[in-house]
Structure formats: structure tokens, C-alpha cells
Amino acid sequence: MRKQVDLFCVLSLFGAILKWLSVPLSVPFIYSIFGRENPLVFLIPIAVSLIAGLLLERLDSNPQLGLRETFLLVSLSWLGVALVGGLPYVLAGAGTVANPVNALFESMSGFTTTGATVMASISFGTHSPELMFWRQITQWLGGMGIIVLGIAILPRLSVGGSELIEAEAPGTQFDRITPRIVETARILWLLYVILTIILGILLYGSHLVGLSPQMDFYNAVAHALTTMPTGGFSPEAKSIAAFSSTVQWIIIPFMFMAGTNYALMWRAFTGSPRKLYRDTEFIFYSLILVFTTAIIFVMVSGNTFEKTQDAIRHSLFQVLTIVTTAGYASHDFNTWNSMAKTLLFMMMFIGGCAGSTGGGIKVFRWIVTIKMFFKQLFTTIYPRAVQSIRVGENIIKNKTARRVTIMILLYIVTFLIGALIIEIESYRIGLDLETLEIMSASAACIGNIGPGFGIVGPMNNYLAFSPLSKTVMVFLMWAGRLELFTLFVIFIPQYWRN
Amino acid sequence: MRKQVDLFCVLSLFGAILKWLSVPLSVPFIYSIFGRENPLVFLIPIAVSLIAGLLLERLDSNPQLGLRETFLLVSLSWLGVALVGGLPYVLAGAGTVANPVNALFESMSGFTTTGATVMASISFGTHSPELMFWRQITQWLGGMGIIVLGIAILPRLSVGGSELIEAEAPGTQFDRITPRIVETARILWLLYVILTIILGILLYGSHLVGLSPQMDFYNAVAHALTTMPTGGFSPEAKSIAAFSSTVQWIIIPFMFMAGTNYALMWRAFTGSPRKLYRDTEFIFYSLILVFTTAIIFVMVSGNTFEKTQDAIRHSLFQVLTIVTTAGYASHDFNTWNSMAKTLLFMMMFIGGCAGSTGGGIKVFRWIVTIKMFFKQLFTTIYPRAVQSIRVGENIIKNKTARRVTIMILLYIVTFLIGALIIEIESYRIGLDLETLEIMSASAACIGNIGPGFGIVGPMNNYLAFSPLSKTVMVFLMWAGRLELFTLFVIFIPQYWRN
Ligand SMILES: [K+]
Ligand SMILES: [K+]
């Protein structure tokens, strides 16, 4: 073990990542040449990412990434990309998002695929189509980042039991050899790209055949970009509620897929659909969705929605959007009865499947926890018995199970501390919030969900909070996306010592 | 290990406990001879406890209590005592509590020192002073039971890290030899009795000197009986808000003591007050109280309370009542602003100190959890390092730490499942509840706190819920009081097999 964290190595590799940010930034730049926005809004960030990236890269000509350096690299990359990716909001100078803290919030919300917004006015009257398109792109990039994180980085870091994520490509055993990981990442990126394209085609297709007048080409691409990463940004102020029921039905299966393990999905699509029925997490995930949709359906049908088909569609859509952490809205669920809202709030703590682009605690961690309950009950009566936990065909080591339980507790404690700070800060600035509003704001940020309830509802925004609250929320989104430990380790003194 | 659970042994020892219930039942019985209630209301339960107790005791002339039997004995005892102790409510036939499910709820709420009520009318117009006095006694008995549970039973059962509870009497090391445990229990019971008497004298004394006109002899005894067990029942509908500020100031230090480790308190009173400052849990407990009181004070002073002294008193009182799980009210905190309520709600998950009569998760478990966070962060960077956790002078074993984290998670999951069932059931019967109401009802039951927010607020009651919801709440109170595992193990199939 080296004596100190190799900062030059970390900065050099961060530079290598940062310079590539110029490529996606060129999309709105080119768009702006033919459009409304001043091209400098994107050209300056392109220059910043290229120059800073290339300069940083020179700090270490042969960077050797160790374990400790990886934590810093991942954490720094997400923050650094969010900072540079937030420049267009500041440079465009339009609306509330031009404020630097707000711009960082919006950008972090994008790259972490959270979908929480501080734009007071989501309309082309305030913001150019180019800037709104960049906002969509940030989520799509965030989703790509998460796939790499889930396959190549987290399993290696053994963070919160993340080594359990089975990310093998067809026919390959998951191991730590780099070419394999690169190959797996490529395959899953391909899947991600293909599903994005199919969704875009379906959305625009429904428009062409007259089933969704609002879903023009721009919107089709924009929403294709934010569905597979479970992002939730929309250039429409009313989110998916602005579109026809056809559009909502198209998005539903894609949200479902976005919340499943991408490796599992790849195998299912490439000849082994039976793998799905044998995957404990997938079964659990599906059962949770069916069960909670049924309850929500009963609670909203007949009162909020007169037609049964509306009640089914909106129940399913909202349950999916919360569990997968997509964060879209097909209806303003703040107008639903408080019982349905309570259930949706509880579901904010489930999260997608491991190996998906979804955030939150994740279904596999809950499965491990439930198994741990039974194991602990068993060893309480038979103290000398040694019992191992199995999830599907995998035997879970004690060490891994401990990581999982501690991760969930840390998640809950971080969520509560976040809620507490937001609460005290909001009180200080005279913002009177209900319990559900405060709690859901913190839960929606750490879970990378986006909208919550009340003031942070799907037709609302996070603008009213103080700069300190927003900074806490940025931290929550960042920490939640990196499964807490990846970020938190760099804050303990022992990380920097030795 | 024996092949099957020795049911006769368990029932015999349960009988031995049950027959003793006739002694406290004689108090309201004698009272009723000179009073208003039909003496049969107490005579029948006395007969039931004596006859059933003596008959059950005969099932096994030489009961040998094994580990597995202990779990069943403890769980069965709390339920059985609650059932027989609830008979007077049914037999008195007055008010809402005469319904059998309600009577069980009220009785379980008493013996678990929860303090949640289903009495629609808390007044001598509806209920006799004798019956209301029995209600107070059930909590005092519950408190005695918890002291025995904490000293003699839980450490032996190694439930949820409870073996960490340091229950040593002065000069003695805690071990498993029965005479020592009996001696420790006697000492702590003595402390419990002495503090109850002192509180009673202080309360009645304040009445005699004219500082609390409402606090007559009956009320002084009644409230002395429910403070040290962190019970919270009151024969006054307005709880402690019915009394003068002097009474509230008298009760404050006794609630504080009720929430601390009784063994630590004994040592502090008998010559080693410095032990307090060296006890990590006590320091944490005190800091939490000071910190949260300060925040609540800021939030309620100037608006809810015009006078600073009122704001200080009520903030401190309510913080203590929630953290120690006493559940009294010096003011209807439902009228406080939602920020203060949110904070009080979060504090429902702290709980008293280990070895106190308080319920909930308990401070020592949170301390272990926080230490585990740092340990896990450390081992994330240095996977091969072996680091042990210390709390004060104690080194915590991995096994114990795991029990603690799993206990907290099981607590949270049980609370959420409870809330979910209560929510669905309430929806079914047309009761429209806010998130905070549902959540706090479940949290107040499993944490043995008593009142929650809204419909279950301190000036309200649990009557409106369906019988199924109330049964779930009875289960939550029961499970919470027995630190979950003690009760849950008897529900896994492996408990009954082998
Ligand atoms: K999202
Ligand atoms: K209580």
C-alpha cells in the first residue's frame, strides 16, 4: 500500500474523463449554430473541458490506479463533470437556473439521473430548446456513467455489498480482468443505446400515426434520452402528463426495463429469457411492482380517476416511476389522496435492481436484509449453528451481508440528517413545510428520484430552498448515486493518512 | 439441545407469574369495596389469575428453563398478563374500552408502558376512579417487568445486541449466576420504588403548598406510578397539560431518570456520580436531549409560546417525553408548527438508554451503528485491516454489532409494515389519514411511546382504527417491548422443530 493518495494519478485520469465531456457538449453547440441560443453558451464549456482535461491529463504520464485512488476518481469525476456540465445554465443567463448554486443543482440532478429541478419556468419562452436539450443529454450521459460504475468500478470497490451485482455478459464469468470488463461495458452500453433508439422511434412513431400530437421529434428524442437512465427530466413542465395515454403506455415498459439489471436483460434478449424467472431480484422487483400498483389502484380508482383504465395506467406509471427512481409524472400525484401518497413515499426507499440505472437502496439489498432477519432469528435460538445466506444460486458471505445492512442503515441515517438540515434551514428562511414535504425532498435526492410531495411535487420545483439546503441536496444526490461509501470514504481522516 | 420446546415447563412458569397478578389486582379491588366500582370487576380477574396460575403451575413440578423456552415464556407472559389484566375494562362495561379488542389494546398499552389509549372519554364521569387507578398500576407493573427483562433475561438471550446492557450492581460484575441477577433486580427494583415514592411525595407536596391545585392525592399517586416506567397514562384527559407548570418541572427530571440506565443511576446515587460522565450512552443521551430541545425551542418560541419560560418548559418536556418514550403531554404538540412536529417525529426512533424502562431502538444501538459506519468506511479502504469497535471501555464483538444493526433494520421494517397494514385497513374503513398520522401511529406503538400526531395526538386516542389495525398495534407494542427478536423467534418454523 502506498503511503499517500496519488493525487496526480487521480487528477490525470479525471482529466481524461473531463476532456471527453466536450463531445456531448458539441451536440447542443451544433444545434445552437442553427438555433436560438448563443453558441458561446456551449463553446466555452467545451473549451473548459478540453483545456482543463488535457492539462490535468499531463500531471501523470503513467497513472496507476490503486484502490484508494479509485474512490477519489469516481467521486471527483461526478462532481467535476457536474460543475463543467452546469456552465451552460450559468452562461445562458436565463431564468432561475442561471444562479451558480442552482446551475450546479440542475447539473448534478442531471448527471446523477435524479431529475429534480430548480427551473421555475420549464418553457421555451424562458429557456432555449438547445439548453433544454443539453439538460436531457446530461441524464443520458449519467446513465452511461452508472453502467460503467455498476460493472467495472463498484464490484471492485466492494461498496455496500455491490460485489453482488452480477454483471456478466452472455457466456462470460464476471472477473476483474480489464478486457472482459471493457467488453461487458460495451455490450451493456450497446443495449442502452439500442433501447434508447427503439423508445425514440416508438415515441415519434406514435406521433406520426396521430396517437400523440404533442410528441414531436424534439420531444421524442428528449424523452428517449431520459427514460433508460431513469432520469426523469422533461422539457415539458407537466412531464409525461403533457402527453397522450399512448405515450404513457409506451414509456411504462421502458421504465420497467430501465429498473432491471442490464446484464440480466441482455441475456434475456439474447436467447435466455428463462433467466428472468430464475433471478430472485427480478422476481421480487416484479412482485413489488404488481402488489403496490394494485393497492394504489384501489386507492385512486373511483375517486381521483373515474375511468378504470386511467386508474390502472396512472397507478402503474407512478409506482414504476418511484420504484425505478425515474421520477416522471403521468399525473400530479400530489392531488391523490394522502393514503396513496403515503404508500408512494414508502416506496421511495426500495430503489431499482442492482445493475440497473436506478438509484436508491436497490431490491437486492432488501432481499439480503430479509434473509439476514431470518438468519439472525435462527442463530438467536441456535447460537452455535452456522448458517449461510443464499440469494438464488449465490452464497452471501458474512462480510458482504454486513456491508449490505450497514449500507441501508447509513442510507437511512444520511436521509434523516439531510431532512433535518433541510428542515432547520427552511425554518430559518421562513419556509413552512409539512413533514412529508421535508422527508420526501431528502428521500427524492438521495434516492435519485427527483420529484417528491408538496412543494417538491412533480409539477413543482426545488427553487424555494436556501442555497445551503440546495448544497445539501447536491451532496445527497451525489452520495446516493455513488452508493454512499464511494463518496464517504474520502471524508474520513484515515483515507488521507498512512 | 432438547428435541422439542418444553411447553409444560413454559406454561408452568407462566402460571407462576400469572398467579402473582392477583396481588396488584387486589389494590383496585380493596379500593372498590369503599368506592364506586362493582368489586366483582376486580375479583373475577383475581380469581382467574389465581386459579389459572395455580393450575398451570402444576403442569410441571420441576420446570427447567432452556434457552428456547425462555423466549416463549417472556412473550407469552406479556400477552397473558395483558389479557387477564384487561378483564376489568370488559367487566366494568363502561365506555369504549369495554369492547374486548379495545380492552386488550388498553391493557397491552399499559403493561408495555406504551400509554396509547382507546378511551374516548377519559373522565370519572365515564370510568370509575378504581378502574382508572388499575390502568395506572398496569404501567407501573410493566416497568418492573422491563427491569427484570433488561437485567435477567435479555442479556442471556443475546437479542439485538442486548448483552451489551451493562446492568451490574455496585461492586459486582455482571454474570449469569442467578443469585447475583436476583440481587441486582432487587436493587434496581428498590431504586424504582424509591424514585416512584419520591415523585409521589413531591407531586402531592406541591399540591399541599398550593403550587398545583389539580394535583390531589389520587393524581399524585397515579402520575408517580406512570412516570418511572415511562408509561404516560394519565387519569386526566389533558395529560400533564392539566397541571401547573410546577408539576411539569417536577416530572421533567424524573422522566430524564426513567430514560437512563437504572444500574448506572444506582451507582451514581451510591457514591460514584462520576460514572455518569464516563458513560458514552449517558453522554449521548444527554447531548441529544439538549440539542433537540434547543432546536424545538427556537421553532416554538415567539409563535406557539409568547413567554420564553413556557417555550423552554414545553420544548424540554416534549423532547423528553418522546425520547424517553414516556408519552406524556404538557401541551398539545399537534398545534405546534409542522417543522417542530417533523423533528419530534424523527426523535420517535431514538428511544431511551439501554437498561432503562424506555422503549424504542435505544441510544446504545445508535452509538454502535455510528461506530459501525466508520469501521465499514475504514475497511472499505483497507480491506485486510481488522478493526474492532469500542463503546467506552467495552470492545464490541462483530457478532454483537451485527445483531445491533439487524435489530435496527428489523425495527424499521416492522414499523413500515405496521404502518402499511394500518394504512390499508384505514383506507378500507374510510378513515382518511395523513402520512404523519399513519407513520406516527405505527412508530408510537412499536416504540412504546403512546401518542403520535394528528388523529393519534396526545389529546386524542386510537379508537377510530379498525379492530384489525388495533390488533396490529397490540402486536407492535408487544414486539417493541420485547426488542422484537424475543417475540419474533417463536414465529419461525425452526423454533418449533428439531
Ligand atoms: K430520477
Ligand atoms: K410510553
UniProtKB/TrEMBL annotation, chains A, B:
PANTHER family: TRK SYSTEM POTASSIUM UPTAKE PROTEIN TRKG-RELATED. It is found in: Cell inner membrane. K(+) binds at residues 113-114, 231, 325-326, 448. Belongs to the TrkH potassium transport family. This is Trk system potassium uptake protein TrkH. Keywords: Cell inner membrane, Cell membrane, Ion transport, Membrane, Metal-binding, Potassium, Potassium transport, Transmembrane, Transmembrane helix, Transport. It is a multi-pass membrane protein. InterPro entries: Cat_transpt, TrkH. GO terms for molecular function: metal ion binding; potassium:chloride symporter activity.
